[in-house]
Amino acid sequence: MLEGIGGEILGVIRFGDIVPYITPFTLSMFILALTLTVLLALAKPENQILMVFGKDKYSLIKPTIEEMKFRRFMVIVCGLALSGAMITGDLFNFTLFVTLVGITNIGIIAAVRRPYVLEAAFQYGLICTLASLPLFGAAAIVLGTAGTLSLHELETLSVLPMAKILLAFGVAGETGIAPFYAAKAEVFRAPGAPYILMVHLSAIMVVIRTAEILLLL
Amino acid sequence: MKWMDKAWMILSDPKELPKIFAISILFVFFVGILLNYPYYPDQLYPKSFELSGLYPYDRGGTPLKEPAKIVAQYPQNSEMIGWITSYLTPFSSWLASKTLYLGTTIVSHPGGIVDEILYYTRGLDTVLESSIMMMAFLIVGFLIKLKRGG
Asked: Which residues of B touch A100 (CB under 8 A)?
Protein backbone atom coordinates (compact mmCIF):
# COMPACT_ATOMS: atom_id res chain seq x y z
CA MET A 1 0.00 0.00 0.00
CA LEU A 2 2.89 2.37 0.83
CA GLU A 3 4.24 1.74 -2.64
CA GLY A 4 0.78 2.28 -4.08
CA ILE A 5 0.42 5.79 -2.68
CA GLY A 6 3.86 7.31 -2.34
CA GLY A 7 5.74 5.24 -4.91
CA GLU A 8 8.61 2.82 -4.36
CA ILE A 9 10.55 3.10 -1.08
CA LEU A 10 13.99 4.39 -2.02
CA GLY A 11 15.48 4.27 1.45
CA VAL A 12 14.95 4.73 5.17
CA ILE A 13 16.69 6.84 7.82
CA ARG A 14 17.27 4.85 11.02
CA PHE A 15 16.47 6.94 14.12
CA GLY A 16 15.84 4.07 16.53
CA ASP A 17 12.12 3.29 16.41
CA ILE A 18 11.34 6.36 14.33
CA VAL A 19 12.17 5.46 10.76
CA PRO A 20 11.54 8.24 8.22
CA TYR A 21 11.19 6.75 4.77
CA ILE A 22 12.01 8.17 1.37
CA THR A 23 9.59 7.64 -1.49
CA PRO A 24 9.26 9.86 -4.57
CA PHE A 25 6.28 11.49 -2.80
CA THR A 26 7.91 12.20 0.56
CA LEU A 27 11.23 13.15 -1.05
CA SER A 28 9.67 15.69 -3.39
CA MET A 29 7.58 17.19 -0.56
CA PHE A 30 10.67 17.32 1.67
CA ILE A 31 12.77 19.09 -0.97
CA LEU A 32 9.89 21.48 -1.72
CA ALA A 33 9.51 22.41 1.96
CA LEU A 34 13.26 22.94 2.40
CA THR A 35 13.54 25.04 -0.79
CA LEU A 36 10.62 27.22 0.29
CA THR A 37 12.22 27.72 3.70
CA VAL A 38 15.51 28.83 2.13
CA LEU A 39 13.71 31.15 -0.32
CA LEU A 40 11.57 32.73 2.40
CA ALA A 41 14.53 33.11 4.74
CA LEU A 42 16.47 34.97 2.04
CA ALA A 43 13.53 37.07 0.74
CA LYS A 44 13.12 40.71 1.74
CA PRO A 45 9.83 41.54 3.51
CA GLU A 46 7.27 43.74 1.78
CA ASN A 47 5.93 47.07 2.97
CA GLN A 48 2.16 47.17 2.88
CA ILE A 49 0.41 50.23 1.37
CA LEU A 50 -3.18 50.88 2.45
CA MET A 51 -5.21 53.15 0.14
CA VAL A 52 -7.84 55.38 1.71
CA PHE A 53 -11.07 54.89 -0.24
CA GLY A 54 -12.47 57.98 -1.96
CA LYS A 55 -9.54 60.23 -1.05
CA ASP A 56 -6.13 60.94 -2.50
CA LYS A 57 -4.37 59.40 0.50
CA TYR A 58 -2.46 56.30 1.39
CA SER A 59 -0.63 54.98 4.43
CA LEU A 60 2.55 52.91 4.42
CA ILE A 61 2.88 50.14 7.00
CA LYS A 62 6.52 49.47 7.77
CA PRO A 63 7.17 46.66 10.26
CA THR A 64 10.26 47.09 12.44
CA ILE A 65 13.47 45.17 11.71
CA GLU A 66 13.35 43.40 15.08
CA GLU A 67 9.83 42.17 14.39
CA MET A 68 10.88 40.94 10.96
CA LYS A 69 13.91 39.10 12.37
CA PHE A 70 11.73 37.23 14.84
CA ARG A 71 9.24 36.32 12.14
CA ARG A 72 12.00 35.11 9.85
CA PHE A 73 13.32 32.88 12.63
CA MET A 74 9.83 31.48 13.16
CA VAL A 75 9.55 30.83 9.39
CA ILE A 76 12.80 28.86 9.44
CA VAL A 77 11.66 26.72 12.39
CA CYS A 78 8.26 26.23 10.75
CA GLY A 79 9.93 25.18 7.49
CA LEU A 80 12.19 22.67 9.25
CA ALA A 81 9.23 21.23 11.16
CA LEU A 82 7.29 21.06 7.91
CA SER A 83 10.07 19.15 6.14
CA GLY A 84 10.21 16.78 9.11
CA ALA A 85 6.46 16.18 8.90
CA MET A 86 6.82 15.40 5.19
CA ILE A 87 9.37 12.62 5.63
CA THR A 88 8.60 11.05 9.03
CA GLY A 89 7.57 7.40 9.24
CA ASP A 90 5.99 7.43 12.69
CA LEU A 91 2.49 8.54 13.61
CA PHE A 92 3.29 10.15 16.97
CA ASN A 93 6.31 11.87 15.47
CA PHE A 94 4.05 13.25 12.74
CA THR A 95 1.57 14.67 15.27
CA LEU A 96 4.44 16.37 17.11
CA PHE A 97 5.73 17.92 13.88
CA VAL A 98 2.22 19.17 13.06
CA THR A 99 1.93 20.75 16.52
CA LEU A 100 5.30 22.46 16.04
CA VAL A 101 4.10 23.78 12.68
CA GLY A 102 0.93 25.07 14.38
CA ILE A 103 2.73 26.89 17.17
CA THR A 104 5.32 28.48 14.85
CA ASN A 105 2.46 29.62 12.60
CA ILE A 106 1.14 31.59 15.56
CA GLY A 107 4.67 32.85 16.22
CA ILE A 108 4.91 34.24 12.68
CA ILE A 109 1.86 36.45 13.22
CA ALA A 110 2.14 37.05 16.98
CA ALA A 111 4.30 40.17 16.59
CA VAL A 112 1.96 41.96 14.14
CA ARG A 113 0.67 45.25 15.59
CA ARG A 114 -2.79 45.11 14.05
CA PRO A 115 -5.71 44.49 16.42
CA TYR A 116 -7.86 42.54 13.94
CA VAL A 117 -4.96 40.24 12.99
CA LEU A 118 -4.06 39.65 16.64
CA GLU A 119 -7.68 38.89 17.49
CA ALA A 120 -7.86 36.31 14.69
CA ALA A 121 -4.47 34.88 15.70
CA PHE A 122 -5.69 34.47 19.26
CA GLN A 123 -8.80 32.59 18.10
CA TYR A 124 -6.64 30.44 15.82
CA GLY A 125 -4.37 29.72 18.80
CA LEU A 126 -7.38 28.56 20.81
CA ILE A 127 -8.37 26.19 18.00
CA CYS A 128 -4.76 24.89 17.81
CA THR A 129 -4.81 24.17 21.55
CA LEU A 130 -8.14 22.37 21.28
CA ALA A 131 -6.97 20.42 18.22
CA SER A 132 -3.99 18.91 20.04
CA LEU A 133 -6.44 16.74 22.03
CA PRO A 134 -7.86 14.76 19.05
CA LEU A 135 -4.44 14.82 17.36
CA PHE A 136 -2.58 13.10 20.20
CA GLY A 137 -5.71 11.12 21.08
CA ALA A 138 -5.58 9.54 17.62
CA ALA A 139 -1.94 8.49 18.15
CA ALA A 140 -2.79 7.11 21.61
CA ILE A 141 -5.75 5.08 20.27
CA VAL A 142 -3.60 3.70 17.46
CA LEU A 143 -0.88 2.65 19.94
CA GLY A 144 -3.43 1.07 22.28
CA THR A 145 -5.42 -0.82 19.66
CA ALA A 146 -2.68 -1.73 17.15
CA GLY A 147 0.32 -1.88 19.50
CA THR A 148 2.64 0.15 17.26
CA LEU A 149 3.07 3.65 15.84
CA SER A 150 5.32 2.88 12.88
CA LEU A 151 3.60 3.60 9.58
CA HIS A 152 5.42 0.64 7.98
CA GLU A 153 3.77 -1.75 10.42
CA LEU A 154 0.43 0.06 10.50
CA GLU A 155 -0.18 -0.40 6.78
CA THR A 156 -0.57 -4.16 7.34
CA LEU A 157 -2.67 -3.79 10.52
CA SER A 158 -6.25 -2.61 10.79
CA VAL A 159 -6.71 0.78 12.41
CA LEU A 160 -10.01 1.88 13.96
CA PRO A 161 -11.90 4.41 11.82
CA MET A 162 -12.32 6.52 14.98
CA ALA A 163 -8.56 7.07 15.18
CA LYS A 164 -8.54 8.25 11.55
CA ILE A 165 -11.45 10.63 12.20
CA LEU A 166 -9.66 12.08 15.25
CA LEU A 167 -6.42 12.50 13.29
CA ALA A 168 -8.25 14.29 10.48
CA PHE A 169 -10.04 16.48 13.03
CA GLY A 170 -6.81 17.34 14.80
CA VAL A 171 -5.01 18.27 11.59
CA ALA A 172 -8.02 20.32 10.41
CA GLY A 173 -7.91 22.37 13.61
CA GLU A 174 -4.13 22.63 13.78
CA THR A 175 -3.74 23.85 10.20
CA GLY A 176 -6.99 25.83 10.12
CA ILE A 177 -8.59 24.34 7.01
CA ALA A 178 -12.28 24.34 6.04
CA PRO A 179 -14.70 24.58 7.75
CA PHE A 180 -12.54 26.21 10.45
CA TYR A 181 -10.70 28.58 8.13
CA ALA A 182 -12.19 31.97 9.11
CA ALA A 183 -9.59 32.80 11.78
CA LYS A 184 -6.71 31.88 9.50
CA ALA A 185 -8.15 33.84 6.57
CA GLU A 186 -8.07 37.01 8.71
CA VAL A 187 -4.47 36.28 9.62
CA PHE A 188 -3.37 36.59 5.98
CA ARG A 189 -4.20 40.30 6.09
CA ALA A 190 -1.11 40.88 8.23
CA PRO A 191 1.70 42.92 6.63
CA GLY A 192 5.03 41.26 5.82
CA ALA A 193 4.18 39.12 2.80
CA PRO A 194 6.86 36.45 2.34
CA TYR A 195 6.55 35.23 5.93
CA ILE A 196 2.78 35.02 5.81
CA LEU A 197 3.17 32.67 2.82
CA MET A 198 4.68 30.05 5.13
CA VAL A 199 1.48 29.98 7.21
CA HIS A 200 -0.45 29.20 4.05
CA LEU A 201 1.96 26.71 2.50
CA SER A 202 2.56 24.73 5.69
CA ALA A 203 -1.20 24.16 6.05
CA ILE A 204 -1.49 22.88 2.48
CA MET A 205 1.51 20.57 2.68
CA VAL A 206 0.53 19.12 6.07
CA VAL A 207 -2.95 18.38 4.72
CA ILE A 208 -1.50 16.56 1.69
CA ARG A 209 0.77 14.45 3.91
CA THR A 210 -2.17 13.69 6.24
CA ALA A 211 -4.16 12.47 3.25
CA GLU A 212 -1.33 10.05 2.42
CA ILE A 213 -1.16 8.80 6.01
CA LEU A 214 -4.94 8.39 6.26
CA LEU A 215 -4.96 6.40 3.01
CA LEU A 216 -2.25 3.99 4.11
CA LEU A 217 -3.58 3.47 7.66
CA MET B 1 -31.43 27.26 1.99
CA LYS B 2 -31.69 29.86 4.71
CA TRP B 3 -30.14 27.61 7.36
CA MET B 4 -27.10 27.13 5.15
CA ASP B 5 -26.61 30.87 4.78
CA LYS B 6 -26.84 31.18 8.54
CA ALA B 7 -24.33 28.35 9.08
CA TRP B 8 -21.80 29.97 6.70
CA MET B 9 -22.32 33.32 8.43
CA ILE B 10 -21.53 31.79 11.84
CA LEU B 11 -18.50 29.95 10.43
CA SER B 12 -17.11 33.18 8.95
CA ASP B 13 -16.79 34.83 12.37
CA PRO B 14 -13.37 34.10 13.93
CA LYS B 15 -14.73 34.76 17.42
CA GLU B 16 -17.31 31.98 17.13
CA LEU B 17 -14.89 29.49 15.63
CA PRO B 18 -13.28 28.02 18.80
CA LYS B 19 -16.75 27.36 20.22
CA ILE B 20 -17.89 25.56 17.07
CA PHE B 21 -14.67 23.56 16.95
CA ALA B 22 -15.00 22.60 20.64
CA ILE B 23 -18.62 21.53 20.18
CA SER B 24 -17.78 19.42 17.13
CA ILE B 25 -14.90 17.74 19.01
CA LEU B 26 -17.28 17.03 21.89
CA PHE B 27 -19.70 15.44 19.42
CA VAL B 28 -16.93 13.23 17.96
CA PHE B 29 -15.78 12.24 21.47
CA PHE B 30 -19.36 11.44 22.46
CA VAL B 31 -19.66 9.08 19.49
CA GLY B 32 -16.18 7.72 20.22
CA ILE B 33 -16.96 6.91 23.84
CA LEU B 34 -19.74 4.55 22.76
CA LEU B 35 -17.40 2.49 20.57
CA ASN B 36 -15.51 -0.62 21.57
CA TYR B 37 -11.70 -0.44 21.64
CA PRO B 38 -9.81 -3.74 21.61
CA TYR B 39 -6.56 -3.59 23.61
CA TYR B 40 -3.65 -5.05 21.68
CA PRO B 41 -1.90 -7.44 24.11
CA ASP B 42 1.53 -7.40 22.46
CA GLN B 43 2.34 -3.76 23.29
CA LEU B 44 5.44 -2.04 21.99
CA TYR B 45 6.13 -0.07 25.18
CA PRO B 46 4.96 -2.27 28.05
CA LYS B 47 4.94 -1.11 31.66
CA SER B 48 5.50 -3.32 34.68
CA PHE B 49 2.84 -3.50 37.32
CA GLU B 50 5.06 -5.11 39.95
CA LEU B 51 5.45 -3.30 43.24
CA SER B 52 8.92 -1.78 43.17
CA GLY B 53 10.69 1.50 43.81
CA LEU B 54 10.90 2.17 40.10
CA TYR B 55 7.21 1.54 39.32
CA PRO B 56 6.04 1.84 36.53
CA TYR B 57 9.45 2.07 34.85
CA ASP B 58 10.96 -1.02 36.42
CA ARG B 59 12.42 -2.83 33.42
CA GLY B 60 14.81 -5.11 35.30
CA GLY B 61 18.47 -5.70 34.46
CA THR B 62 21.70 -5.43 36.44
CA PRO B 63 24.21 -2.67 35.66
CA LEU B 64 27.07 -3.90 33.41
CA LYS B 65 25.91 -7.54 33.68
CA GLU B 66 22.54 -7.97 32.10
CA PRO B 67 20.47 -5.48 30.03
CA ALA B 68 16.95 -4.42 30.96
CA LYS B 69 14.01 -5.78 28.99
CA ILE B 70 12.84 -3.15 26.52
CA VAL B 71 10.67 -3.90 23.52
CA ALA B 72 11.70 -1.91 20.46
CA GLN B 73 9.98 -1.77 17.11
CA TYR B 74 13.28 -2.12 15.28
CA PRO B 75 15.86 -3.67 17.66
CA GLN B 76 18.40 -3.72 14.83
CA ASN B 77 18.46 0.11 14.96
CA SER B 78 19.24 0.27 18.68
CA GLU B 79 21.87 -2.34 19.38
CA MET B 80 22.82 -1.20 22.89
CA ILE B 81 19.21 -1.29 24.08
CA GLY B 82 18.66 -2.10 27.74
CA TRP B 83 22.13 -1.28 29.00
CA ILE B 84 21.49 2.34 29.87
CA THR B 85 18.16 1.91 31.67
CA SER B 86 19.54 -0.75 33.98
CA TYR B 87 22.08 1.74 35.35
CA LEU B 88 21.27 3.68 38.51
CA THR B 89 23.69 5.78 40.55
CA PRO B 90 24.34 4.49 44.07
CA PHE B 91 22.23 7.33 45.47
CA SER B 92 19.29 6.49 43.19
CA SER B 93 19.41 2.77 43.93
CA TRP B 94 19.47 3.58 47.67
CA LEU B 95 16.49 5.90 47.19
CA ALA B 96 14.66 3.23 45.15
CA SER B 97 15.08 0.75 47.99
CA LYS B 98 13.60 3.24 50.48
CA THR B 99 10.62 4.64 48.60
CA LEU B 100 7.99 3.29 46.22
CA TYR B 101 7.68 6.50 44.23
CA LEU B 102 11.09 7.02 42.64
CA GLY B 103 9.78 5.89 39.25
CA THR B 104 7.36 8.79 39.08
CA THR B 105 10.19 11.32 38.99
CA ILE B 106 11.97 9.74 35.97
CA VAL B 107 14.89 12.15 35.65
CA SER B 108 14.16 14.92 38.10
CA HIS B 109 16.83 13.77 40.55
CA PRO B 110 20.56 13.23 39.95
CA GLY B 111 21.30 9.90 38.33
CA GLY B 112 17.67 8.93 37.97
CA ILE B 113 16.29 6.52 35.45
CA VAL B 114 17.44 7.50 31.99
CA ASP B 115 14.51 5.96 30.22
CA GLU B 116 15.60 4.47 26.93
CA ILE B 117 12.22 4.79 25.29
CA LEU B 118 12.34 8.53 25.88
CA TYR B 119 15.99 9.11 25.07
CA TYR B 120 17.07 6.26 22.80
CA THR B 121 14.47 4.46 20.71
CA ARG B 122 12.12 7.46 20.54
CA GLY B 123 14.68 10.20 21.09
CA LEU B 124 13.48 12.38 18.20
CA ASP B 125 10.06 12.67 19.87
CA THR B 126 11.62 14.02 23.06
CA VAL B 127 13.63 16.58 21.09
CA LEU B 128 10.44 17.73 19.35
CA GLU B 129 8.42 17.90 22.56
CA SER B 130 10.95 20.23 24.16
CA SER B 131 11.20 22.27 20.92
CA ILE B 132 7.44 22.87 21.00
CA MET B 133 7.70 24.14 24.57
CA MET B 134 10.73 26.30 23.77
CA MET B 135 8.90 27.89 20.82
CA ALA B 136 5.96 28.72 23.10
CA PHE B 137 8.31 30.33 25.65
CA LEU B 138 10.09 32.19 22.86
CA ILE B 139 6.84 33.68 21.50
CA VAL B 140 5.70 34.80 24.95
CA GLY B 141 9.13 36.23 25.73
CA PHE B 142 9.21 38.19 22.48
CA LEU B 143 5.69 39.54 23.00
CA ILE B 144 6.55 40.75 26.50
CA LYS B 145 9.70 42.38 25.14
CA LEU B 146 7.64 44.16 22.46
CA LYS B 147 5.11 45.33 25.02
CA ARG B 148 7.83 46.84 27.19
CA GLY B 149 9.13 48.69 24.16
CA GLY B 150 12.56 46.99 24.10
From this structure: 128, 131-132, 135
